[in-house]
Write a structure and sequence with these properties.
17% strand; elongated; binds iron/sulfur cluster; two-stranded antiparallel sheet; 417 residues; nine-stranded mixed sheet; alpha/beta; 33% helix; binds S-adenosyl-L-homocysteine
């Protein structure tokens, strides 16, 4: 494992170790993925292009990176043949490294990924009848120790960089074969570079529900989502992106204002004692305060409701009384809300069990009768442990040598097909 280039920064709330803004590769080249357009332009100027050239080239390169998904400067056919090696000498187009990729019988796909400095994190793709949702990680590990969450048992290693976050979306497009093909002639004249939309693609939605607390890595998540939403790039609408937080109240307003995505809140309990226990952040930011912050969330309307996630834990938070209290609280704050009931996904050593199906049904009915939609999330990808924190664990059990052997076998069988 290479040395991690870490520096302590004052986090939004607590100090967290984070990667430096630009960490050149060992050969000195800079990864362009994750950098905003003006930064690419600046780097081109610093490397010797004049202002006009830097502007034009950065526009072309941005388009090739985020709209066409190329990973090699040699493929940038509207950039002169002499310019392409100039770029290759100075820059790279990165992707997270794939440690392991799994495909469930129900279509769910899961990847164990690795940063360049050797830290594992995960990403899941869940296809449905009318949408395909990519579940993206924002941190390696998590500082918040929710007691039912496996990621919560891992220590926070570091925040993911904007490149590592947007890189997950790009990697998924690579794997799904969803980059548009076609010619790039005349880009410098054409402003209409947005004919490709998410429509017709498998990957239509993004949820920040993988490893980590996205609002503890606000700047990097915002920068990455700005790239995902950029009309000249991945061009995914903010309406198709949902950020899930365990309740980092001081960052919620900025999330609405500066990112503007849909909000999901991991509520999981309706009274202080239980929430203090299972979501310890509640001791810092209490329930009522959290619901008030939801009521103030910029952009929340009946058309764009806030999702309240509620994990169903047997004999802990799943009584009819809890369901009635949930309805009362959501109504008290007049919240445009929907509730997502998540059957607890057990992991080795967990101190909880999932509520019985009858209990979940009864809970759901009470919330529905209160006038709030409360569907039960269907577990997906069970055969590949596609839920929170589990692929990483499964992979850790295998030795590096075993993983390498499996990868070699998989590559060999693909060649033989
Ligand atoms: N840190 C953020 C987002 C990542 S977790 C948050 O907590 O909101 C995404 C969702 O999965 C959260 O609602 C989380 O509470 C839930 N979750 C975590 N572990 C789970 C488990 N073992 N079973 C079911 N849901 C779980
Ligand atoms: Fe972190 Fe979310 Fe897991 Fe809590 S539920 S430990 S905030 S990833």
């Amino acid at each position: 494992m290479a040395d991690t280039n870490l520096m302590p920064i004052a986090g939004q709330i607590d100090p967290v170790p984070t990667a430096r803004d630009i960490t050149p590769r060992e050969d000195g080249r800079v990864d362009l993925i994750g950098l905003p357009r003006p930064r690419i332009r600046e780097l081109f100027e610093r490397a010797g292009l004049d202002a006009k050239q830097a502007k034009l080239r950065s526009k072309q390169v941005f388009h090739w990176l985020y709209h066409r998904g190329v990973t090699d400067f040699a493929e940038m056919t509207d950039i002169s043949k002499t310019m392409r090696p100039w770029l290759t000498e100075r820059f790279v187009i990165g992707r997270p490294n794939i440690v392991e990729a799994q495909h469930s019988t129900d279509g769910t796909r899961k990847w164990l990924l690795q940063t360049d400095d050797g830290h594992d994190f995960e990403m899941v793709f869940i296809p449905d009848a009318d949408r395909g949702t990519l579940c993206v990680s924002s941190q390696v590990g998590c500082t918040l120790n929710c007691t039912f969450c496996h990621t919560g048992t891992m220590r926070l290693v570091r925040n993911l960089t904007p490149g590592e976050i947007v890189g997950q979306v790009m990697l998924a497009r690579d794997a799904l074969g969803e980059w548009p093909k076609g010619r790039m002639d005349g880009l410098e004249d054409a402003e209409d570079t947005g004919h490709y939309t998410a429509d017709g693609r498998l990957l239509t939605n993004i949820v920040l529900m993988g490893m980590g607390e996205p609002l503890y890595n606000f700047d990097n998540v915002r920068d990455a989502m700005n790239l995902v939403m950029d009309g000249d790039g991945l061009a995914l609408s903010k309406r198709r992106i949902t950020l899930s937080t365990s309740g980092v109240i001081p960052m919620m307003e900025r999330c609405g204002e500066e990112i503007g995505v849909n909000l999901a809140v991991s509520l999981h309990a309706v009274n202080k004692d239980v929430r203090d226990e299972i979501v310890p952040l509640n001791r810092k930011y209490g329930l009522e305060e959290l619901l008030q912050a939801c009521a103030n969330y910029p952009g929340a309307t009946n058309a764009r409701r806030i999702t309240f996630e509620y994990v169903m834990l047997k004999d802990k938070n799943d009584s009819d009384e809890d369901a009635r209290e949930l309805v009362r609280l959501l109504k008290k704050f007049d919240l445009p809300a929907k509730v997502n009931l998540i059957p607890f996904n057990p992991w080795p050593g967990a101190n909880f069990e999932c509520s019985d199906p009858d209990r979940i049904r009864s809970f759901s009915n009470i919330v529905f009768e209160g006038g709030i939609s409360a569907p039960v999330r269907t577990p997906r990808g069970r055969d590949i442990d596609a839920a929170c924190g589990q692929l990483k664990t499964a992979a850790e059990k295998k030795s590096r040598a075993q993983r390498d052997r499996e990868a070699a076998e998989a590559a060999a069988s693909e060649v033989g097909e």
